[in-house]
Amino acid sequence: MILSFSTWPEIEAQLTRSRAIVIPVGSTEQHGPTGLLGTDALCPEIIAREAERADEAILVGPSFNVGMAQHHMAFPGTVTLRPSTFIAAVRDWTQSLAAHGFERIYWLNGHGGNVASLEAAFSEVYAEHSLLGRAASVQLRLRNWWELPGVMRLIGELFPTGHGGHATPSEVAVTQWAYPDRIKTAELTPRIAPTGPIRDAQDYRARFPDGRIGSDPAQATPEKGGRIVAVAAEALRAELGAFAQSTGSA
Hints:
By secondary structure, the protein is mostly helical. The chain has helices spanning 8-17, 39-54, 83-99, 115-130, 151-158, 169-178, 201-207, 222-244, and strands at residues 20-25, 104-109, 139-144.
């Protein structure tokens, strides 16, 4: 079930069956010459919706598609939030859902730069309850999609070299599978991008002029993306099922 395509009576009825929801969260940032700017939000959304297609008991909320991307701001099209803005938005998002009775909110993340702020937002939510001497009314869970069981093993088999750390062939392949009419091509020089530290936006572009870090996204194909999505979606289904039935702290 997709929240954005549902009516309020349908969500009210869903809450009598399950009080769990998955929220895809990512970023809008450069992904090299061939990666879509929406890649980091699209990947978790694609995986969550594929899991929902196999199990209608899963409720997929609207994607949080702008995140912590300040280090990509030297590349046009990138949109970023301040940490304080991001944390406040996650808190409000969580409290809105909790007010309707959702008790298990699973955040499926597509951007490593979001992790620290997501965890800070979770701490803020729990602190609000603890300081009032109340048990938390909601459990929050964070999972990076590539860390779902079996995914990194498959990625290692598909891309034994040139996977890298940004604008990777795995994430590009996932978007190619879902949106084959949006596949981009470009000359990549060098074939495998250099690696190194990430600092501020201007330093990033000086070190990595085409936006890639250690990656060769030319290895991506829709077929490889489909294999990744299948493994990730099945793992997500299993985790969501257990999370929805969990008791105690997440």
